[in-house]
Specification:
Layout: H1 9-21, H2 26-38, H3 47-59, H4 77-85, H5 112-122, H6 134-149, H7 155-163, E1 167-168, E2 171-172
Antiparallel strand pairs: 1-2
Length: 181
């Protein structure tokens, strides 16, 4: 019988019972149930997911123990560095032709379709540009830093500043003409 995919306690218990009924030892059944419970969309499980799952199993009396740093099978310092260096939410390919982002001449930002794709693939919560308020001010300050410290001309950053109506000639824009937001 297939295992139930879910994070609830009921799904976990049902998976343990299914595995025990299939002839697995109880500790192995619990480990399998935890594995199903913690799988993310796409099925990728990282180093920290494994560590937290093992701590959870230990807490519930699995009889396991955490390995000491430097012992065989324990994560190395390099493993931890590698797990931290992975970008969260990166590597999403967006296309101007598919309408997922705007060309520089039109203001450079993401379209609603592009934001939806990034949110779907990374679990982010990107929102449409905001005309005023704290989010608007924060974006403008960050992008001005990008333009200031860019090695080249930074045309996309300048275009996004324009699209967000951040500044016009060094002074804040008085009127906001936001269409379609």
């Amino acid at each position: 019988m297939p295992l139930v995919k879910g994070k609830s306690e009921k799904a976990f218990k049902k998976n343990v019972a299914t595995e025990i009924h299939a002839g697995k030892p109880p500790k192995q059944a619990v480990a399998i149930a935890y594995s199903v419970q913690r799988k993310k969309e796409g099925g990728k499980i990282g180093l920290w997911d494994n560590i937290h799952a093992k701590q959870e199993r230990i807490k519930h009396g699995s009889g396991e123990h955490m390995r000491k740093p430097g012992s065989k099978g324990a994560p190395t310092a390099e493993d931890f560095k590698r797990s931290q260096s992975k970008k969260q939410g990166g590597d999403v390919k967006l296309s101007i032709k598919k309408g997922e982002k705007l060309p520089t001449k039109q203001g450079a930002g993401l379209t609603a379709k592009g934001r939806a794709k990034v949110n779907r693939e990374t679990g982010s919560h990107l929102q449409a540009p905001q005309a005023k308020g704290s989010r608007h001010n924060s974006f403008c300050a960050r992008m001005e830093g990008v333009v200031k410290h860019a090695k080249g001309d930074a045309p996309r950053a300048k275009a996004s500043l324009s699209r967000w109506h951040c500044k016009e000639g060094g002074k804040p824009k008085k009127k906001y003409d936001i269409k379609g937001w």
